[in-house]
Hints:
Blueprint: H1 3-12, H2 16-25, E1 30-31, H3 32-38, H4 43-55, E2 59-64, E3 67-72, H5 74-85
Antiparallel strand pairs: 1-3, 2-3
Amino acid sequence: xxxxxxxxxxxxxxxxxxxxxLEMLTTGEKCGSTLLEELNITQPTLSHHMKxxxxxxxxxxxxxxxxxxxxxxxxKFREFKAYINTITCSGFETEVVIRKK
Length: 101
């Protein structure tokens, strides 16, 4: 996974609605109308959020008749998690405590 891909995914995850959408998709594929029922957003707003998630390849979609269906792209999500897990605090003997003044 490239740094650019990681950056794009991090940007996509920077919105609370998109995180909520991903949480909903962890239980399986969902239709756009099902997502709208749970979220307090308009259909155009949902379309925007889904476009962002699809463009960074975290979500796949397909159309069945007039319904759009969405699912997490598990391989890309696993790659992202593996990359994030490579960023560690190893080498530090003690936890650094930052005190506010």
